[in-house]
Amino acid sequence: MTSIGTGYDLSNSVFSPDGRNFQVEYAVKAVENGGTAIGIRCKDGVVLALEKLVTSRLLKKDANKRIATVDRNIGVVHSGLLPDGRHFVSRARDEAQSWRGTYKAPIPVSSLANRMGSYVQAFTLYSSVRPFGITAIVGGWDAETDVDVDGAVGSGPKVGAGGKTKGVKEGGPYLYMIEPSGLYWGYYGAATGKGRQAAKAELEKLKLDPKDGECISLEEGVKEAARIIYVAHEDSKDKDFELEMTWISAVNGPTKGRHEEVPKALKEEAERLAKAALEGEDEDEEKMEK
Amino acid sequence: MASLFNAQSMLDQPSYSFAQPTSHSEPRQHSFYPYTDNGGSTLGISGQDFAILAGDTRSTSGYNINTRYAPKLFKIGGDGPNNTGSKIVLSVVGFAADGRALKERLDTVVKMYKYQHGKDISVGACAQRLSHILYSKRFFPYYVTAILGGIDEEGKGALYSYDPVGSYEREQCRAAGAASSLIMPFLDNQVNLKNQYDASQPQGFGKEPLKPQPLSRPHVESLVNDAFTSAVERHIEVGDGLQMMIITKDGIEETYAPLKKD
Amino acid sequence: MNHFPQAWGRPRDDVYGQYNPSYLPQSHGGTQQPITHTQSPIVTGTSVIAIKFKTGVVIAADNLASYGSLARFTDVHRLKHFNRKSVVGVGGDVSDMQYLDRLLKSLDVEENYSTGSHTAEESETDPAMMGANNLHTYLSKVMYKRRSDFNPLWNALLVAGLDEKNKPFLASADLLGTTFSGPTMATGFGAHLAQPIMRRIVPDEAASQQLGREEAVQAVRDCMKVLFYRDARSMPEYSIAVIDEKGVELKEKEVLENQSWDFADKIRGYGTQTV
């Protein structure tokens, strides 16, 4: 890299003459080595999925979960340096909790992304710290119906001031991705880690933008997520991996508005389909070669 | 500052203003009374190589019966949440919430003792520790009368009784709680043979009082039963069930027998 | 200059007048009001009642929050659903109930930080899920701590549900931190009016293990009716929850049925009078 030896890459609080912060760029490199993580914003929920590379045969299967719950309705998946991710999650939980303390209601996903973006960005400003070595995908469901404030009793006035406006709908599924620089955007589909290029290519094929008509459903999303993780793993086929998947639906959906692990049966079905799809592709390729 | 700037010596001097922490000493007014009496009675008797603790299982609030089964006897120490292998029993009667808090503190302390020293605590040491725990809340006491039972280092039955702020002594027998004034005189007479004289001696001023002898286990158990069945008749807060714990060198035997529920 | 170092450099009273410390906080000599704590409940809920049956627990409380003798709020839900194994019924001060509800919510969030599934078929065997007994221990410690700080939460709670071995569990905790458990439980007026009725149906633990779900629900409904007949701080709309191995079934808009006030005009005095 051109920066080596110039001295501009040694500290956070120093720009290079061409306006780059090399420490942040190195942090991005750390992310690029992590297992692939993706998030899909579907019509009726959000799916988070992770390619968890097995670093040792001595680790128990399906233990050591990596996708974390931050508040009832929000989950975080990240790739990069694991301990940095842990700290990120811990901070996100504090933010969610303090929001509840102030507003007596769950934090909206956008506000959490905003606060965590600011937090991560602060680690690019000072020479005494280094940036986060992770990219985090934050997914959640903001309640679209009227929700009581925490601890509310009764149902409030039915008409008049303080009453409810009919037909107004807010909330829904949200997905954000926060990078080591502190940059964050809202996404229809987000991917990071080693297999992000392949994953993004697959995500772009999905119907995720509501402007293009009906988006895919949450259950389709789960199956696509599993398939995409398997596709993204193709380039590092020699390594073992475990698929970890969580989802969040509306209150009237399968998870009742909570961030939860995808049920075993559905996950196994999704993995079976994912494997079948990959084999199908291989067969196609073989046919082509013939 | 009043003490520092003594009025006499300050008379001819200019005075200064300092923070006056005097308003601190005003008593705070509270209408909340943090105690209640949950009734019930306990008793303990020690024998040659055993100690028995017993308590009824009724819990009351005024004229209400909260429940017919709320144990007042707790195993202390041993392993795990069920205190397996424990050889010390604590009985508490009075304010049940304090009783529970006290039991949990003593249990933790006794378990920590074993982790730190690699051996079980002796009843004597445990008894003194309990006294210290009670006294540590001298000015906001645990409103309970505690009795601690176990086997001492010579293999003899040991029984310690307490007041709410930690004063304690080792005794042969003790009744506590709502019906203590009914049961204790009975125990004085039957265990320590108070006011009993040798019938074969001629009547007169020189009568020889009977000397208390160590009692057998079946005998003590029947005394406990009699004490409680009688207390149930005369005290409304006592009844429902009788729980007994018999501590011997082999461990703790626990029994339960129904009492009248009226 | 004098020999009191504390006085050196300080304004003299004979020059500047006495310093008025009244606005300072109490810890610095101010004369502000002392810290105050709840001395009595304000807006209150009345009884909560519950019965254990063979495979679970039924619990009920009416939907009224009273302001003294005023029926102030009539759609207040006093049964709090914690997880699929437990429900807390709250009587006493409503603002303290709201505090407890928030406490429970944050506890629930923390309990579920590690991702796990909560769909029925999988969490049935989840050994990590808090049982109703664990929740009761937690709440009773909260209550006892607050009474020991002379700042009580003015409530009487019933915790109903299943323990970690999926056995029915029912216990109470009150503002003093006192706890007890039994096959039938009632707080407030219910301890006088409903408890005797329930104990007739379920005299002991063995009887509750014979009791069916329908009978238990019916007994609780009957007791709610008696409570409405005789408790002036009650209302006919109530919440009822059944917790068993299938999860929590909570209904918050039940209304008393088949009321009969025929007995009322025959009552003299407290009901024991005959003429």
UniProtKB/TrEMBL annotation, chain A:
Pfam family, one: Proteasome_A_N
This protein's name: Proteasome subunit alpha type
Domain Proteasome alpha-type subunits: 8-30
Subcellular location: Cytoplasm; Nucleus
Subunit structure, interactors included: The 26S proteasome consists of a 20S proteasome core and two 19S regulatory subunits.
Keyword annotations: Cytoplasm, Nucleus, Proteasome
Organism: Zasmidium cellare (Wine cellar mold)
Entry similarity comment: Belongs to the peptidase T1A family.
SUPFAM superfamilies for this protein: N-terminal nucleophile aminohydrolases (Ntn hydrolases)
From TrEMBL, chain B:
Gene3D superfamilies named among the record's database cross-references: Glutamine Phosphoribosylpyrophosphate, subunit 1, domain 1 (3.60.20.10)
InterPro entries: Ntn_hydrolases_N (IPR029055), Proteasome_sua/b (IPR001353), Proteasome_suB-type (IPR023333)
Keyword flag Cytoplasm: yes
Keywords assigned by UniProt, alphabetized: Cytoplasm, Proteasome
Superkingdom of the organism of origin: Eukaryota
PROSITE patterns (UniProt xref): PROTEASOME_BETA_2 (PS51476)
Places the protein is found: Nucleus
Name of this protein: Uncharacterized protein
Species this protein is from: Zasmidium cellare (Wine cellar mold)
Lineage: Eukaryota, Fungi, Dikarya, Ascomycota, Pezizomycotina
From TrEMBL, chain C:
Major place of residence: cytoplasm
Compartment(s): Cytoplasm; Nucleus
Keywords: Cytoplasm, Nucleus, Proteasome
Tree of life domain: Eukaryota
Region (Disordered) location: 19-38
CDD domains found in the cross-reference section: proteasome_beta_type_4
PANTHER family to which the protein is assigned, alphabetical: METALLOPROTEASE TLDD, PROTEASOME SUBUNIT BETA
Family as reported in the entry's similarity comment: Belongs to the peptidase T1B family.
Function per UniProt: Non-catalytic component of the proteasome.
Protein name, per record: Proteasome subunit beta
Species assigned in the record: Zasmidium cellare (Wine cellar mold)
Organism placement in taxonomy: Eukaryota, Fungi, Dikarya, Ascomycota, Pezizomycotina
